[in-house]
Amino acid sequence: xxxxxxxxVWLLRILVFVGLFGLAIKNSGPVELRFFLDHSWTAPISVxxxxxxxxxxxxxxxxxxxxxxxxxxxxxxxxx
Length: 80
Known about the structure:
This protein is of the alpha+beta class. Helix content is 61%, strand content 12%.
């Protein structure tokens, strides 16, 4: 990659970060999540969205972990 292209990529990353950060700041109102047995949790909506994203990423990685850890079978020698 050329230096100019790296600079453009970093400027784009900074622009996206500032835009998403501003969106999170403007939408910082409290949200109440109600669970079973009358439990509730009040937090800013940006924290709730971040928590849900982290939980989803964790579940996705856990689901993919079985495929990564499964031992590969050696090739069948009789198939020739």
